[in-house]
Specification:
By secondary structure, this protein is an alpha/beta fold. It has one domain: Rossmann fold (3-Layer(aba) Sandwich), CATH 3.40.50.1240. It has 6 helices and 8 strands; from the N terminus they run ββαβαβααβαβαββ. An 8-stranded mixed sheet has the order 1-4-3-5-2-6-7-8. Helix 1 crosses helix 2 and helix 4 packs across helix 5. The protein starts with 9 loop residues before the first strand and ends in a 12-residue tail after the last strand. InterPro entries: His_Pase_superF_clade-1, His_PPase_superfam. It holds the Pfam family His_Phos_1.
Length: 236
């Protein structure tokens, strides 16, 4: 296999403080409340809107037989095949990423290495690897917020229209479910394809925005969002 040529930075970032630890200073509300505005529809095209796509991909299957720490587990032979297959599926859908954010675990990096053998554009895509994306995936309900924070640091409204985030369960399933507003299950090397129409990334990288779940697909067989309840494996 040729070496991966992904450009990346090893960035270990401190986890964001829990909501309970954040000080909130409240001002007294004015006596005359502002008129209630209708919720923005991000699921349909419109003037000034760009189609923005987000791929939440769980890493491919890893070898659990070697006596190494979890962070250093490598892909299994099956996992290498899975990564190649999901890359082909993403390519066939026309969802080639122009920006990648990922956990810095070994199996995550190897998943991208194998994918770049099929999806050659990944070899030159701007990619950022975060230790915090590995850590936060094990915590309850914090992954979506952290993905959004990391994205807002590097995403560009003009250059980036398809962003892929690669990481681990349980956090990736939780994040995909929160983005989509419905339960999403991700097996190894499975991806949730989400999209919105908006004027900017910042506009839709908020807790209040629900993204359209286009499809959940994996290496065994693509599955529509209505049948995306495949049982995840235990390899994180």
């Amino acid at each position: 296999m040729r070496p991966c040529t992904l450009h990346f930075r090893n960035t270990t970032r401190a986890l964001p403080p829990r909501a309970a630890d954040r000080r909130v200073f409240c001002r007294t509300a004015p006596t005359s409340s502002a008129p209630v505005q209708e919720a923005t529809d991000y699921t349909t095209p419109g003037e000034g809107k760009t189609l923005r796509r987000l791929i939440l991909l769980r890493h491919a299957d890893s070898d659990q037989t070697q006596a190494v720490r979890d962070h250093d587990r490598q892909l299994s032979s099956a996992g290498r095949q899975q990564a190649a297959q999901v890359a082909q599926l993403i390519k066939s859908k026309g969802w080639t990423p122009d920006l990648v954010l990922a956990s810095n675990s070994k199996r995550t990096k190897q998943t991208l290495d194998e994918m770049s053998e099929v999806l050659e554009e990944l070899g030159s895509v701007d990619a950022h690897f975060y230790g915090s994306l590995y850590t936060v995936a094990a915590l309850d309900g914090q992954t979506r917020e952290h993905i959004m924070e990391c994205l807002l640091e590097v995403v560009d409204d003009v250059r980036n229209t398809v962003v892929m985030c690669v990481g681990h369960n349980k956090g990736w399933e939780e994040a995909a479910s929160q983005f989509a507003g419905t339960a999403v299950k991700l097996r190894t090397a499975s991806a949730a394809l989400l999209q919105v129409y908006s004027g900017s990334w910042r506009e839709v990288l908020r807790d209040s925005v629900t993204w359209q779940l286009v499809e959940v697909m994996g290496p065994s067989s693509p599955s529509s969002s209505s049948s995306s309840s495949a049982t995840p494996s235990s390899s994180g």
